[in-house]
């Protein structure tokens, strides 16, 4: 679901200058953090727009693609918006031909070793959504997770 949040952020005009910098993807309070800020007066509208963009991607039922690529191929895919991934951190320094596991979800591509849904539509089946955001010290934290019963 974190990758779908990234893709939704990318769909919103003006946010391509907010690269993801941290993610916490566990059931207890998942979120993705982005470097940047949203003016306090614009936060409600920004959140509403982000929720719609996330839901549109979920409704499209876009397949997740997982590949193992040489660093030279992964680099332009993972760092196309900002140089926020040092792919050397994802490989062994002793590997003579290093490869990186790359996950693409709804047009958002990043190195990732986690577990992934087969498509964005699985999130609809499980009732996942964008839940809120906080802005503090140049960081925008987007919370996501299942709709609470």
Question: How is the secondary structure organized here?
Answer:
Elements: H1 2-11, E1 20-24, E2 31-35, H2 43-60, E3 64-70, H3 71-78, E4 99-105, E5 108-111, H4 121-125, E6 128-136, E7 139-146
Antiparallel strand pairs: 1-2, 2-7, 3-4, 4-5, 6-7
What is this entry, summarized?
The chain has helices at residues 2-11, 43-60, 71-78, 121-125; strands at residues 20-24, 31-35, 64-70, 99-105, 108-111, 128-136, 139-146.
Description of the structure:
The chain is of the alpha+beta class. It contains four helices and seven strands. The strands form two sheets. The protein has a four-stranded antiparallel β-sheet with strand order 1-2-7-6. Strands 3-4-5 form a three-stranded antiparallel β-sheet. β1 and β2 form a beta hairpin. The model has no long low-confidence stretch (mean pLDDT 87).
Any key phrases for this structure?
single chain; alpha+beta; 4 helices
Strands of the widest sheet, in order across it, are 1-2-7-6
Query: Which of globular, elongated, flat, extended, rod-shaped describes the shape?
Result: globular
Please bin the fraction of helical residues: 25-40%
Give the number of DSSP strands: 7
